[in-house]
Amino acid sequence: MRLLVFFDLPVVERKDRKAYQEFRRFLLNDGYIMIQFSVYSRICNGIDGANKHIARLKKNLPPKGSVRYLQITEKQYCEMTFLVGSPNPQEKNINSSQLNVF
């Protein structure tokens, strides 16, 4: 299971830039990797794991802007096609085979 988070946040005012930085820092600390600017992905252990991270995401939303998420299976994620460019090194190193189930 993967969570994709897409966001578009204002960065005109100083408090907006701070909110952007805090939200981005939250995503990175919660295990998301950047796929593209303002698009982050996270591997989750099933629907329960995804729901846990969705709840965390909702608790850390910035006050302004647009934030949305998409929940997809690992198979759907692997079927993503690059039209221009290639996966970044961090994205190549993280896949579902590294997910441990306890």
TrEMBL record:
GO annotation terms (biological process): defense response to virus; maintenance of CRISPR repeat elements
Assembly: Homodimer, forms a heterotetramer with a Cas1 homodimer.
Gene it is expressed from: cas2
Cofactor: Mg(2+)
Pfam families on file: CRISPR_Cas2
Family matches, as CDD domains: Cas2_I_II_III (cd09638)
Protein name (record): CRISPR-associated endoribonuclease Cas2
Role played: CRISPR (clustered regularly interspaced short palindromic repeat), is an adaptive immune system that provides protection against mobile genetic elements (viruses, transposable elements and conjugative plasmids). CRISPR clusters contain sequences complementary to antecedent mobile elements and target invading nucleic acids. CRISPR clusters are transcribed and processed into CRISPR RNA (crRNA). Functions as a ssRNA-specific endoribonuclease. Involved in the integration of spacer DNA into the CRISPR cassette.
EC number: 3.1.-.-
Swiss-Prot/TrEMBL keywords: Antiviral defense, Endonuclease, Hydrolase, Magnesium, Metal-binding, Nuclease
InterPro entries for this protein: CRISPR_associated_Cas2, Virulence_VapD/CRISPR_Cas2
UniProt similarity note: Belongs to the CRISPR-associated endoribonuclease Cas2 protein family.
Superkingdom as given in the UniProt entry: Bacteria
Gene Ontology molecular function, alphabetical: hydrolase activity; metal ion binding; RNA endonuclease activity
Binding sites annotated in the UniProt record for Mg(2+): D8
Organism: Clostridium amylolyticum
